[in-house]
Specification:
alpha/beta, six-stranded mixed β-sheet, 2 helices, globular, 148 residues, 8 strands
């Protein structure tokens, strides 16, 4: 499982001219599910996402996690994170999970994130989405459960 985490001052996702998720300060989580991902991959990525200390403390150091600052999460499925461009210029998505498997893992990730008592908004699985964000910092982190 891969996640690109962006610290944002605001972010939103729109599907067919309708906003489906919108947050203020927090984290935009672009989530890609790899074929063969398990519950332990999901748990690892979620724990790292929630625990990331990428918000400024009173000394201006990256030392606070999302809970510490009352931040929100916008979680967006993005299978293209599994794109492999080692051969040629057209990405291969062969390592991405099948849609049914990916949707199940994505929905479980969202459910568990909500259980953490953090405000969670989402995109729409398999929809053509427009994602808008203001990256604060900028701060962008890649989490890959296979590189744990």
């Amino acid at each position: 499982m891969r996640a690109v985490i962006q610290r944002v001052s605001q972010a939103s996702v729109t599907v067919e001219q309708r906003v489906t998720g919108q947050i203020q300060a927090g984290l935009l989580v672009l989530l890609g599910v790899e074929a063969g991902d398990t519950e332990s991959d999901l748990a690892f990525v979620l724990k790292k996402t929630i625990g990331l200390r990428i918000f400024d403390d009173e000394q201006g150091k990256l030392n606070l996690a999302i809970r510490d600052v009352g931040g929100e999460l916008l979680i967006v499925s993005q299978f293209t994170l599994l794109g492999d461009v080692r051969q040629g210029n057209r990405p291969s998505f062969i390592s991405a999970a099948a849609p049914a498997e990916a949707q199940e893992m994505y929905e479980e990730f969202v459910r568990r994130a909500r259980a953490e008592k953090i405000l969670v908004q989402t995109g729409v699985f398999r929809a053509e989405m427009q994602v808008s964000l203001t990256n604060a910092g900028p701060v962008t982190i890649l989490i890959d459960s296979r590189r744990a």
